[in-house]
Design a protein that fits this description.
Layout: H1 2-8, E1 31-33, E2 37-43, E3 49-54, E4 60-64, E5 70-76, E6 81-92, E7 101-118, H2 120-123, H3 137-142, E8 150-154, H4 184-197, E9 201-207, H5 219-222, H6 230-237, H7 250-256, E10 266-270, H8 282-296, E11 306-309, H9 322-337, E12 340-343, H10 363-377, E13 389-396, E14 399-405, E15 411-412, E16 420-423, E17 430-431, E18 433-437, E19 442-446, E20 455-458, E21 469-470, E22 479-480
Parallel strand pairs: 1-7, 7-9, 7-10, 8-9, 10-11, 11-12
Antiparallel strand pairs: 2-5, 3-4, 3-6, 6-7, 13-14, 14-19, 15-21, 16-17, 16-20, 18-19, 20-22
Helix pairs in contact: 4-10, 8-9
């Protein structure tokens, strides 16, 4: 064993005839979850012993490859620090003293690891999409090297009809060369979380534009949904060289399943546009997906954090109420999922983006997700994360007084409040005036043409930007009282 440990202590490069193979996600620059039993896995000679030496301890970790050569080891990680480590993995065949193969992974960090998924607004890279910029992206890209303790692993699109064990995607250190391809939302989340915690933060960015929640859910579950014909959609979804983005199951099989062994802290989710119109089924289906994800990532308490993003206003939905109803159901989903929350994005679009489904403001989206994680997961209760939500209303003559939760320090602006509508008994909503009632920290709403108001709405349209916020500049969540 002395010979083995002596070999492990030296820097040895990967041999050309490697017996050990690792998934793409396990490599140089990766971040391991702190103070846990972080999982490492791969392939090796069947029956061989896998020994792992970690730079933060003299202890050696070992496991054995099964009859198919698969192995999985748990490595005890220390508290996070701004120190780069080396991991050395070696294979020892039966009846041999010295390793038959050695792999060394460099520049490993120990910190906090999150998994970011969803569709195009999560996928959207810092360089932007065609005709869709990310706000201030050139500056962010130019200064990306200022964030050496942030690591992002962009996962390639990899649709499969059966579960696979690997997916392309390597850990990247931010720089002007690497940052353009990084998920903007994931990057800004990691940036804020890293600065607040002052430890390394890694995010696995695993998203596919246009994907439905059914795309990230296992086949045996989706086949039970009476509005999804898996076989038919697989047949029509494949054109011979690529998959259609809203094909069911393929994202789970090709992108989620192969990453399930990676030890993470929690999930970020920015998806929903492709499920608009399905607000009656979306909350339960999203909860089903989250239950499965938590189990697959080793959460035995069904409490791993899951924070989601409210879909932004977009005029492409027309005058129908499908998108405001969907936003409403996203907040309902967060309630039934447990240890979850939904950030509001109603204020994070510009009027000229009425027909742009990819708003340029991604920094604040990432930051608001980070605020929620800092408050709820890391215990920084002084950092606000909850947008004001409708609590109750009182009718006073021709006015409705609206009260809110999460507005303990009041609301603003005091004048020119935008976004309210009011209706009488006939249910016809008209634009309303609104003003702050300072003493009650409430809002008074009225319209001259409605003498006997019954209900009020706020930004309950496909595209309507409100300006009402709490003292931490978090926007009021769109709502209706006429349920």
């Amino acid at each position: 064993m002395k010979k083995i440990f002596l070999a492990l202590s030296f820097a040895i490069t990967l041999t050309t005839s490697a017996k050990i193979t690792l998934p793409d996600i396990m490599g140089d620059n990766m971040v391991l979850q702190q103070q846990t039993q972080a999982q490492l896995w791969g392939k090796a000679t069947p029956g061989s012993t896998i020994q792992i030496a970690a730079g933060w301890t003299d202890r050696r970790f070992s496991t054995q490859a099964d009859k198919d050569g698969n192995w999985l080891a748990k490595v005890t990680t220390p508290a996070a620090s701004k120190q780069e480590y080396t991991l050395t993995i070696c294979e020892i065949k039966n009846n041999q003293e010295e390793p038959s193969d050695i792999i060394q992974l460099k520049r490993i960090l120990v910190g906090e690891v999150w998994f970011a998924s969803g569709q195009s607004n999560m996928e959207m890279p810092l360089e932007g999409f065609w005709n869709c910029p990310v706000k201030n992206n050139n500056q962010v890209i130019a200064t990306a090297a200022d964030n050496p303790w942030v690591r992002i692993a962009p996962i390639e699109k990899n649709g499969k009809t059966t579960p696979v064990e690997d997916v392309p995607g390597k850990w990247q250190v931010p720089s002007p060369a690497t940052a353009p391809a990084m998920s903007a939302t994931a990057y800004f989340f990691a940036q804020m979380l890293q600065k607040a915690l002052d430890i390394p933060v890694g995010v696995i960015a695993c998203a596919w534009g246009g994907s439905r929640v059914e795309g990230w859910t296992p086949e045996e579950v989706v086949r039970k949904y009476d509005d999804v014909d898996v076989d038919k959609e697989w047949t029509s979804g494949w054109n011979g060289s690529w998959w259609h983005y809203n094909t069911p199951v393929i994202m789970y099989n090709g992108m989620l399943h192969p990453l399930r062994h990676y030890t993470i802290k929690g999930f970020l989710w920015y998806q929903g546009e492709s499920n608009v119109g399905k607000d009656n089924t979306y909350p339960t289906r999203l909860k089903t997906m989250v239950d499965i994800w938590r189990k697959e990532f080793g959460d035995t308490t069904d409490s791993m954090p899951f924070y989601l993003v409210e879909i932004a206003p977009w005029g492409g939905y027309g005058e129908w109420l499908s998108s405001p109803l969907f936003r409403e159901c996203q907040h309902r989903a967060a309630e039934i999922i447990g240890n979850s929350g939904c950030i509001c994005t109603n204020d994070l679009v510009e009027p000229y983006e009425v027909n742009q489904i990819h708003p340029a403001e991604k920094q604040e989206v990432g930051y608001r997700l980070a605020y929620m994680a800092l408050n709820r997961t890391y215990g920084f209760k002084s950092i606000a994360c909850d947008s004001p939500e409708y609590d109750r209303m009182e009718i006073h003559g021709n006015q409705i007084e609206v009260f809110f939760k999460y507005a303990e320090q009041g609301l603003s602006p005091w004048q020119d409040i935008q976004g309210f509508e009011i209706a009488g008994e006939d249910g016809k909503f008209v634009p309303a005036q609104a003003k702050l009632n300072e003493s009650n920290k409430s809002i008074l709403v009225w319209a001259d043409e409605v003498n006997a108001p019954k209900n009020v709405r706020y930004c309950f349209k496909s595209f309507q930007i409100g300006n009402l916020k709490n003292a931490r500049n978090l926007p009021v969540v769109p709502f209706r009282t006429d349920k």
